[in-house]
Amino acid sequence: MSRQAYRAALVHMLDDPCRAPAAEACAYHTDGLLVVEDGHVAAFGAYEDLAPALPAGTPVEALSGRLITPGFVDAHTHYPQTDVIAAWGSQLLGWLNNHTFPAEQAFADRAHADEAAGFFLDQLLRNGATTALVFCTVHKTSVEALFDAALARNMRLIAGKVLMDRNAPPALCDTVETGRADTEALIRAWRGRGRLGYAVTPRFAVTSSEAQLAMAGEVAAAHPDVLVHTHMSENLDEVARVGELFPGHRDYLDVYQRFGLLTDRSVFAHCVHTSEDALRRMVGAGAAAAFCPSSNLLLGSGLFSLRQACACGVTVGLGTDVGAGSSFSLLHMMGEAYKVGQLRGEGLDPLHAFYLATLAGARALKLDDKVGNLAPGKEADFLVLDLAATPLLARRMAAAKTLADKLFVLSILADDRVVERAYLAGALAHARDGDL
Ligand code: GUN
Ligand code: FE
Fold it and tell me: Helical H runs in 99-209?
């Protein structure tokens, strides 16, 4: 058995801070001890409480000035879109046609997909994302490239082949039958390997026929261990287009519901223009939303109301939505979510933002029995954050008194330099300073 302990400040969330009293929702130890045994968390607590019981001979690494957190969960992103980060000039539907669809066509080539997958996963790790729910492209091989790269890194990743049979370039369209066959084959080939999971991934209602959405619902129903991952109500032109393509439905969610895609394993990215009625139907079904503030601001999609979603009881994770979103950093997304909250007059408590980036994301992806915090028994995916990574950060951090102050400073000033190390299942997977 391997056992290693780390002494540093520690923080993680145990519950939703909007629903549980702060003392129960969050555990914070300024002098803490994290004990890792065989890739899992064995203990998390105050150093003075845990040190006396530590088995003799356990190595303890002292990491002063550092904050250990759980790895972040990116609840919605696209690995083939790294190269459209910072593409400007249009909103969603124009951006897809002008930038995204051309970039995705390159993933028919396995070598391109391999290179892009490796770069993408390394970016996740250097920014502290240890778990993610990821769109691939319509090409089966794009999923194989990403899963191979994730398996090699032992990352906890859920991904799927995009289903798209209309309103997209012919080179990016499958059919009902090839979409079904490829999806079934991928589920069979990858289920249970490493820390991988599959998500049935119709892109959005605009690019799938009724028959394809029905097929996606059938495949999801046949495989209770897979998620459903799609976009919903991101942009007003998109919502109007869905109304034209699917007349007679109560709303956008109703389209997904009719085809069996509203499930307790569904993650709907965006939900910016989703009514309270639809949010409540999501709660009734056990579906989750992914809030993607950077993307929503850059594409001008709108301002998601986290307050409304929380009041309705929706599980909300935080997504980078690369490449509409411009950063791989969930810390940065916490800051962007705060700015959206400010524009809505809602604000956002830093502890709530931290919950979104960790445990809430794990809950949205139905992985909270495995990751999302550092409770004993969970997989030891954690980060060592350097709170003095830049001169400005060090200066502002020195004046930050409370945990909320510190998390807020990180959310506004952090980038990948803050992530000194990232561990996956107890093993060092990224070292900022190159001592991997
Ligand atoms: N809606 C449908 N496809 C996409 C996509 O690739 N990115 C975003 N942000 N929204 C979408
Ligand atoms: Fe997206």
Answer: 101-105, 110-126, 140-153, 176-190
Q: What is the pLDDT of residue 21?
A: 86
Q: Kindly report, as residue ranges, where domains of CATH 2.30.40.10 are found in the chain.
A: 3-70+373-431
Q: Is the CB of 234 under 6 A from ligand 1?
A: yes
The CATH 3.20.20.140 portion of the chain extends over 72-364
Of 90, 96, 134, best ligand 1 pocket probe by most atoms within 8 Å of the beta carbon: 96
Residue 21 corresponds to which amino acid? P
Report d(CA 385, CA 113) in Å as an integer: 31
Nearest CA to ligand 1 atom 9: 324
Cα distance between residue 367 and residue 362, in whole Å: 5
**Please, is 105 exposed, middle or buried when counting C-beta atoms within 10 Å of its C-beta (0-12, 13-18, 19+)?**
middle
The radius of gyration of the chain from alpha carbons, rounded to an integer in Å, stands at 21
Shortest-distance ligand to the CA of residue 232: 1
Both ends of the chain: CA-CA distance in Å? Answer: 21
Ligand 1 pocket, residue 274 CB under 6 Å:
no
| C-alpha of 434 from chain center | 26
Question: Which structure tokens are listed for 340?
Answer: 């959206």
With CA atoms as reference, report the closest residue to 404 among 74, 25, 8, 20: 25
Degrees (nearest 5) of the Cα angle 430, 431, 433?
150
pLDDT at 161 over 80: yes
Looking at domain 72-364, does it have CATH number 3.40.50.1820?
A: no
Residues 6+ apart with CB under 8 A from 188: none
User: With a 6 A CB cut-off, is 204 part of the ligand 1 pocket?
Assistant: yes
- Say how many Å lie between the CA of residue 239 and the centre of ligand 1: 13
pLDDT tens for 79-128 read 999 999 999 999 999 999 999 999 999 999 999 999 999 999 999 999 99
Helix (H) or strand (E) holding 334: helix 330-344
Rounded Cα distance, 409 and 427, in Å:
28
ipTM over 0.90: yes
CATH number, domain 3-70+373-431, options 3.40.50.2300, 3.90.245.10, 2.30.40.10, 2.30.30.60: 2.30.40.10
pTM beyond 0.90: yes
Residue 203 Cβ inside 6 Å of ligand 1? The answer reads yes
